[in-house]
Amino acid sequence: AAECIYVTDNIEKIKENEFKMQNAISGYIYRKPNNFSQINQNSNVFDYLEAFEHNSRRLILSSFDYIQKLKKLGKTAEEAWNEAGVQLCQASKAHTQTFLVRTFIGTIPKIEDFAVKSVMEDILWLYLSYELVHSAVGLLEEGFLSSQQMDIIRKKMFDSLEKIRPNSVALVDSFDFTDRELRSVLGRKDGKVYENLLEWASNSPLNEYDVLPFHEKYLGSAMRE
Amino acid sequence: VNPDLAEERIKATFDPYQLGNFFWQGQLKRRREIVSYVEAQGAELSPRMPEVFMSRMEQMEDVARLSVGMAKHAEKVIDVFKPEEQFYLNSLICGFNGSPFHLHLIMALPAMINNCDDEQAGEWLPKLLNRELIATYAQTEMGHGTNLRALETTATYDPSTEQFILNTPTITATKWWPGTLGKSANFCVIIAQLWTNGKCYGPHPFWVQLRDIETHKSLPGITLGDIGPKLGTSSNDNGFLRFDNYRIPRRHMLMKHAKVLPTGEYIPPLHAKVGYTSMMYVRSMMIYGHAIYLAQAVTIAIRYSCVRRQGEINPGFTIVQIYFAGEVKVLDYKTQQYRLFPVLAHVFAIAFTGIYINQLYYTVIGDINAGDASLLADLHSLGSGLKALTSWQITKGIEQCRLSCGGHGYSDASGIPSLYTMVAGSLTYEGENIVMLLQTARSLMKI
User: Fold this and answer.
1) Does B344 sit within 8 Å of A164, measured CB to CB?
2) What is the Cα B314 distance to its own chain's centre?
3) What secondary structure letter does DSSP report for B365?
């Protein structure tokens, strides 16, 4: 944040910034942001990535500005850091979320099987739209996203749910968990849940007795008094 | 197979094996070989009964039996030098609620690999790999967790005997929480404040024998115990440990990075934080490993949501129509899709990132061994933020899976309560999440 000066005529500074923009994790912070999102019905995933980057960049720089302002008001660096703790956590979360998004986007092209790539693109679109809907407050506040664009994103999310529905069981089957690993009557691969629920309950040590050993000592005698 | 589930599988537009092989990084066939070998061993490698029905003592005994069985079969079925195969075999046989070799594999072994010099590695790694001892990793103290600089356990060098003297100076200095420390481990990587020639050089790793090899009794000057029941991981004897002037040879300080010479002279490491690489290894493995637990929970929830029918979307169904058509599959409700499919998407997002971070870890370790530690700060910063964000998303996701199964989700029959209580620990261990976010923030502010 300290190094991000967007408007400068210092050639050395510009070259340095360009080099730092290559960093796969934090390079985006150095890029000069657009004022408005390009998201529309025909957007690609990079328009969505730009929104995540805009959001985390904004939170990082506003946290930094807040700390500088506190220092000018006479706070020590440590006091300012503590005062800005909540904003810093939000900035870190957003920055980490941006990394998760970028890595997910970067993984899809590595999938060779066409049918798998197609269903994973549905999953990616759900992930992008769902996460953006849940982290868009600041972007709306600042006007980077419009309410029409939010409608587009929300529609994309619900359309993705629809597209995933027919593949949902096959998607979880692809993890290839055995019933042994899942240790779950509900999650059995054969779906025979209710018959096995009764059998599972028979394992309960309590079921070794029809009448529990202490029943007479307490409840039995108490009820007759 | 339940017809409601069978008809779902017919609709698929892709081959689950292809996606599975991509998800498991080309290892799906290998996983199937391992699981069929284990299942072929029958009772020897299977729990006596579902562990949720056992008392803690019964679980500990059964998991000890299974651990011995695993050690006996390990070399026949896996490549013991591949951590992912070790973890898979351990979870298949011993489950995930704690077992004697769990911390041995995920914490102690990586810490020794990353902190032993060549001579120390030659002496101790074969014993660790052959499971001739049970090791764990003790850093957290009763009063000190994420702030490592405040750890109180001391290791003071005595040049006259060329030994370190370990001490627990206060009650809050008691080592507290390390897995398998209470009853199982007989060796331990201890993180203690290093004192030599009258000066403190901060936290360093030491290799300490805790119990007599033959009798397993705790050694004089050492107090060990179980810290008692907790939210989950019931078959893990998370323990406490106190030292009272306990002496260890100088060469039991792990000296790959920092060293202390016989005279007591301190030789600093290449990079101040390099000693924490085992913590970073655990974090990078955690991110991927815990995405798998979320995958298990969402598998249970989506399958059951196709088996469970409830209510009708189009009101006015007659009793006869309901009898024949049946109620609606719960997964056909938009609210259930909205609850579960994003969780499924998180599984892939987190798993892919875990793989990327793991590759980044091996790059960093490779560089450190070659003398370059510049990537360390990037991995440290990113790893902290990812550990925090993904552990939150995973724990929340498993809770959604439980809720989506209705009443049965609250029962251990679903398997979800165990997953939840086990994963919820990750919100705190390996670094408290808020502190992790603030660690990431520190480097963001510099940038």
Assistant:
1) yes
2) 47
3) H
Does the pLDDT of residue B276 top 60, yes or no?
no
> In this predicted model, what pLDDT tens digit does every residue of B86-95 receive, in sequence order?
889 988 999 8
Q: At what angle do helices A85-107 and B433-447 cross, to 10 degrees?
A: 80
Q: Which residue has the tokens 């899976």?
A: B401
- Residue A123: list chain B partners with CB under 8 A: 344-345, 348
| CB-CB under 8 Å, A92 with B14 | no
Write the single-letter amino acid at A79. Answer: E
Residues sharing a CB contact under 8 Å with residue B170, sequence separation 6 or more, in sequence order = B143, B152
Please tell me the distance from the alpha carbon of residue A119 to that of residue A168, in angstroms, as a whole number: 10
Asked if the C-beta of A204 comes within 8 angstroms of chain B's C-beta atoms, the answer is: yes
Residue B375: per-residue pLDDT: 64
Query: What ipTM score was computed for the predicted complex, to two decimals?
Result: 0.90
User: Measured between alpha carbons, how far is B31 from B78 in angstroms, rounded to an integer?
Assistant: 10
| Tokens coding B51 | 């562990």
B contact test, residue of A127, A129, A133, A176 with most B CBs within 10 A: A176
Q: pLDDT 10s per residue in chain A (225 long)? A: 766 665 566 777 777 777 777 777 888 998 888 999 999 999 999 999 999 999 999 999 999 999 999 999 999 999 999 999 999 999 999 999 999 999 999 999 999 999 999 999 999 999 999 999 999 999 999 999 999 999 999 999 999 999 999 999 999 999 999 999 999 999 999 999 999 999 999 999 999 999 999 999 999 999 988
CA pair distance B344, A200, nearest whole angstrom: 27
Query: By the CB < 8 Å criterion, does B6 face chain A?
Result: yes
Report CB contact under 8 Å: B405, A186.
yes
Which residues of B participate in catalysis according to the annotation? Answer: 430
Total number of residues shown for chain A: 225
Q: What average pLDDT does range B352-370 have in this prediction?
A: 78
Decide: B407 and A184 in contact? Cβ < 8 Å: no
CB contact under 8 A, A67 and B445: yes
- How many interface pairs between A and B have CB atoms less than 8 angstroms apart? 275
According to the 3-state scheme, what is the secondary structure of chain A?
Answer: HCCCCCCCCCHHHHHHHHHHCCCCCCHHHHCCCCCCCCCCCCCCHHHHHHHHHHHHHHHHHHHHHHHHHHHHCCCCHHHHHHHCHHHHHHHHHHHHHHHHHHHHHHHHHHCCCHHHHHHHHHHHHHHHHHHHHCCCHHHHHCCCCCHHHHHHHHHHHHHHHHHHHHHHHHHHHCCCCCHHHHCCCCCCCCCCHHHHHHHHHCCCHHHHCCCCCCCHHHHHHHHHC
Nearest beta carbon to residue B296 from set A92, A127, A182: A182
- What does the DSSP assignment read for B277-303? HHHHHHHHHHHHHHHHHHHHHHHHHHH
B residues 20..59 contacting A (CB < 8 A): 20, 22-24, 28, 31-32, 35, 38-39, 46, 49-50, 53
Binned at pLDDT 50, 70 and 90, residue B277 comes out as low
Average pLDDT over residues B298-306: 98
Single-letter residue type at B171: I
φ, ψ dihedrals at A21, nearest 5°:
-65, -15
Interface test with A, best of B303, B309, B374 (most A CBs within 10 A): B303
Q: Among A22, A183, A199, pick the best mutation site for testing chain B contact (most B Cβ within 10 A).
A: A183
pLDDT tens for B373-425 read 666 677 778 888 999 999 999 999 999 999 999 999 999 999 999 999 999 99
